[in-house]
Amino acid sequence: MLDTDFFRRWMAATAAAMDREADRLTELDAAIGDADHGSNMRRGFSAVGDVLGKEAPATPGSVLTLAGRHLISTVGGASGPLYGTLLRRTGKALGDAQEVTQEQLAEALGAGVTAVAELGGAKAGDKTMLDALLPAVAVVGASFDRAREAALAGALETVPLQARKGRASYLGERSIGHQDPGAASSALLVGALAETAGASGGGDA
Predict the structure, then answer these.
(1) Three-state DSSP state, 2
(2) Which of 1, 177, 186, 194 is most buried as measured by Cβ atoms within 10 A of its Cβ?
(3) Beta-strand runs (E) in 63-147
């Protein structure tokens, strides 16, 4: 079972990953975006860590709901609303349970990813964060490690794609040959989940 502390540690691990990889994310974004994705992710998840420390939400769902709400208010551009929607909708799907199973988290994440797709109007293959999230969600109920691998593979598979959504889509064929920064940061989020599960002594169903 996954308790509130697990979700707090997941957000902390995500913040550490975004801080560590901020320069790489910005470099990816410089090629096909505004060159601010790394700094936005670092700032947003750092702020999430701060607010979780102050408000101490009592359930897994409330951890993610608070994190999502804070990302929307602190991260500029499209990233704030998209990541905020992902976490808020996932948190809402978890409800008021004190503990959740890995399968329940997988189902809730699926709802969150669906909400992201609806908000951005994107689908698999459009060279967005969904290309990392969709394959991860498909396997996370069975294995956090497989979800991490699927997200990483999905992010890498955006390199040969032409962007059809977001700022990168304005570049047309010039977006080909570059990894999508949103997919890269989404892989970090999933990787932090697997890291947290491993530190907890397993977690895979």
Answers:
(1) strand
(2) 186
(3) 99-100
Q: How far apart are the first and last CA of the chain?
A: 10
Tokens 């004190």 sit at which residue?
A: 98
Closest CA to 21 of 137, 197, 150, 191: 191
Tell me what percent of the residues of the chain surpass a pLDDT of 90: 86
Cβ proximity of 25 and 181 under 8 Å = yes
| φ, ψ for residue 3, nearest 5 deg | -105, -175
In the DSSP assignment, the letter for residue 174 is: G
Provide mean pLDDT across the span 19-24.
97
Sign of CA dihedral 17, 23, 24, 25: positive
Residue-wise pLDDT tens digits, 109-155: 999 999 999 999 999 999 999 999 999 999 999 999 999 999 999 99
Domain boundaries in the chain? 2-198
A 10 A CB-CB count for 204 gives 15
For residue 148, count CB atoms less than 10 angstroms from its CB and return exposed for 0-12, middle for 13-18, buried for 19 or more.
buried
Q: Identify the bridge partners of residue 100 per DSSP, sorted by sequence position.
A: 2
**What letter would DSSP give residue 12?**
H
3-state secondary structure of 33: coil
CA Rg value for the chain:
16
* Residue 184 structure tokens: 């890269």
At 36-88, the pLDDT tens digits run 999 999 999 999 999 998 998 999 999 999 999 999 999 978 899 999 999 99
